[in-house]
UniProtKB/TrEMBL annotation, chain B:
This is ABC transporter permease. It comes from Pseudomonas fragi. PANTHER family: DOXORUBICIN RESISTANCE ABC TRANSPORTER PERMEASE PROTEIN DRRC-RELATED, TRANSPORT PERMEASE PROTEIN. Keywords: Membrane, Transmembrane, Transmembrane helix. One of its GO terms (cellular component) is membrane. It is found in: Membrane. The keyword Transmembrane helix applies. Residues 132-361 form the ABC transmembrane type-2 domain. Coiled coil: none annotated. It comes from the Bacteria. It is a multi-pass membrane protein. The chain crosses the membrane at residues 21-41, 166-188, 208-231, 251-269, 281-298, 336-358.
């Protein structure tokens, strides 16, 4: 038995007043509050279908795109950047029509992009790529260079770089010129612990004023974001602030209960099912229960503990990791 | 934007000089191919070299000695076949590339021993020996051969066919094809397959500047490759190509125009391909037929007229034809305005199509 249930009356995404409130809070540098927006994005390739309406990424915010593999996260970004054939309506980048933005070198100077699986020519070396970046943008932020320790790579041939070193170079190319809009695809992939912390610090503090849109698969990446776009089942399930999605999906507390007596366990399961504090309830196996809930789950669990002798018991606050885990599984409201 | 173009071009060139494979195909392979072709076919109008053996006999007369000299003189010009002479004392089996001459002990005929169904060069050498021997015998009897047969030079002005020149110019075009079509197309396809073109698409660099850097760097590579081939051909193998003359200066714009045409064709082939494999297939579909039917290293003199007519409009055939006319025959450029215009037309067509069709990404 492996069932789970989400008990909530909330609708997907932010309600209109909440959205309005968020727009007012978000810092704006021009009249256009969105860094990227589209009335409609529709992509179809073979059996794959992806469609999203009224999508926008707010300026000055760091937005994480999360979701299961193959859900369309990269498709969404690639469609907006013109790398994929897509039907776009009223697509804009930094207030300029997307097609015009991507055709104009003046506008592209305002953009920084890091993509997955990018390989420059094996016969090139790092110095040449850095020279090209300098010639293109005319500036390279020393803080970014320091955080990514780019000087140690400068003299190396490109083919000698490890996966992590290539990732550092790609991040430098995307961030060093302080673009108005940065698009990152899994920025921490391949980085070791020390560099994950450095880049996280860089994004959270030194580059806090940039608009960053990033595809996330790790909690460290998610931690640097304020907003979330949850891509699932060929569309967008949620867009809005990260905390709201966490509250909606996994609430404030999580409990894990293990009991040998399966009848007793089922009784507890039905009891928790009836609790208004329960948001998401599942039985990973015949003698386990996992439950996410609101603040009131604390009281409900306390009542249960008094009556039952559990074989194993865990209780604590929920984390973004839990939310990311659920979103990556493609779990939806039941 | 000029600095960006300069850096992109410099990066491409540095990558070329670091790549052992690129250096081999651009510099070593053409020279290797020229060497092999010259070993197979020789230089100017020669069928090759044959071993001519004189069988040593105890009683050699003065007439034998004079005939031997006459035979050696007959091969002095190397036309149509060259000979290496030696004297042997035994009657061992005769090799396939050898003609053995046996002087008669008494009044018998001179014997010329060789494989009657053997190599063309050997059979031709046997005929040269026959003529020399007959002349020698006639002279002994007081008959001057020119009283019997008189040769008259009806000089048409046409240069004799020279394999060395033919191969050098043909291999020169193969070099340009290799750099212009294969290297350019595969380089672009590799960047696209490895997503680097997506990053270039996000850089503030115009598409034309990016393409220009690829073309410009390869023009430089082409000039280096062509220069090294011509130097080796001229000074290494003594092929009759004048390098330091007005004729060569006139050939330079033809080489550049043809090279740019091939570069544009390479860019066009890679403008939409999604993978290196797909690009390779397209390149091979152009490259190999051109090697066989381009009149590059395989002379097509005996092809039917209708095939020659069809081949004459193919850009690579036009290019090599104009190049030979300018570089070998010394034709002035204005006299070749029509084929040059055709080359320029092909170049414009390939460039325009490549610019319009070019995509940074796979889909």
């Amino acid at each position: 038995m492996n069932s789970q249930i989400l008990l909530t009356g909330e609708k997907h995404g932010l309600s209109e007043p909440a959205l309005h409130r968020e727009m007012q809070l978000a810092p704006t540098r021009t009249d256009e509050p969105y860094a990227m927006a589209a009335k409609l994005i529709r992509v179809s390739a073979g059996d794959f279908r992806f469609e999203v309406r009224d999508l926008h990424f707010q300026r000055g915010r760091h937005t994480a795109i999360i979701g299961p593999n193959g859900a369309g996260k990269t498709t969404l970004i690639e469609a907006l950047l013109g790398f994929r054939q897509a039907h776009l309506e009223e697509a804009q980048i930094l207030g300029v029509a997307a097609a015009r933005f991507l055709q104009s070198t003046r506008h592209r100077k305002r953009l920084g992009v890091q993509l997955q699986r990018v390989e420059y020519e094996d016969s090139s070396n790092v110095r040449e790529i850095l020279d090209l970046h300098q010639a293109l943008y005319g500036k390279q932020d020393s803080q970014v260079a320091q955080a990514l320790d780019i000087e140690t790579l400068r003299k190396l041939p490109y083919r000698a770089l490890s996966r992590g070193q290539k990732q550092r170079l790609d991040l430098f190319v995307a961030l060093a010129h302080h673009p108005e809009l940065v698009v990152l695809d899994e920025p921490f992939t391949g980085l070791d612990r020390a560099y994950i912390e450095r880049v996280a610090h860089l994004l959270r503090y030194d580059l806090a004023d940039l608009t960053i849109i990033m595809i996330c698969h790790s909690v460290e990446e998610l931690d640097t974001a304020s907003d979330v776009v949850w891509v699932c089942k060929g569309g967008v399930e949620y867009r809005g602030d990260k905390e709201s999605l966490k509250n909606r999906l996994v609430g404030a507390f999580h409990a894990y209960l293990q009991l040998d007596d399966s009848d007793h366990l089922k009784a507890i399961y039905h009891q928790l099912e009836r609790e208004s504090a329960t948001l998401r309830l599942s039985m990973p196996s015949n003698n386990e229960i996992s439950v996410y809930g609101t603040q009131e789950l604390d009281q409900s669990i306390r009542r249960l503990i008094g009556n039952v002798a559990f074989q194993h018991f865990e209780f604590g606050p929920t984390h973004y990791r839990d939310m990311l885990h659920l979103c990556a599984q493609g779990e939806q409201d039941a | 934007m000029l600095s960006v173009l300069a850096i992109l071009t410099r990066n491409e060139l540095l990558g070329f000089f670091r790549s052992k494979s690129a250096l081999f195909w651009a510099l070593a392979f053409p020279i290797l191919l020229l060497t092999v072709m010259l070993m197979a076919f020789g230089h100017r109008g020669s069928l090759g070299t044959v071993n001519v053996e004189f069988l040593e006999s105890g009683a050699q007369t003065s007439s034998d000695t004079s005939c031997k000299l006459a035979i050696q003189q007959a091969f002095a010009g190397g036309d149509p076949v060259k000979a290496d002479f030696s004297t042997v004392s035994n009657t061992a089996a005769i090799a396939a590339d050898t003609v053995r001459i046996v002087f008669p002990a008494g009044e018998g005929p001179l014997q010329v021993r060789y494989d009657f169904n053997g190599q063309l060069a050997v059979r031709a050498a046997a005929r040269v020996i026959e003529i020399a021997a007959v002349r020698c015998a006639a002279a002994e009897r007081g008959i001057v051969s020119t009283d019997l047969v008189h040769f008259e030079d009806t000089a048409s002005g046409a240069k004799p066919f020279d394999y060395g020149q033919f191969f050098t110019t043909g291999i020169l075009v193969i070099c340009l094809m290799s750099l212009g079509i294969m290297s350019t197309a595969l380089s672009i396809a590799s960047l696209r397959e490895h997503n680097a073109l997506k990053i270039y698409a996000c850089f503030p660099v115009p598409k034309l500047v990016f393409l220009a850097s690829i073309l410009l760097s390869r023009v430089v590579m082409m000039l280096i490759s062509v220069g090294s081939l011509l130097l080796v051909a001229r000074y290494g193998y003594g092929i009759d190509i004048s390098l330091w003359s007005v004729q060569t200066l006139r050939a330079l714009p033809v080489i550049v125009l043809g090279g740019v045409m091939l570069l544009c064709l390479g860019t066009l082939l890679a403008s939409r391909t999604a993978s290196i494999k797909e690009t390779e297939l397209l390149c091979h579909l152009i490259h190999y037929p051109a090697l066989f039917f381009g009149n590059l290293t395989i002379p097509l003199n005996d092809a039917p007229a209708w095939i020659k007519s069809i081949l004459s409009v193919i850009p690579i055939n036009q290019f090599v034809s104009v190049l030979r006319q300018v570089m070998l025959d010394g034709a002035p450029l204005p006299s070749l305005w029509l084929p040059l215009l055709a080359l320029a037309g092909w170049t414009a067509l390939f460039l325009t199509a490549a610019t319009f069709m070019f995509r940074w990404h796979k889909s």
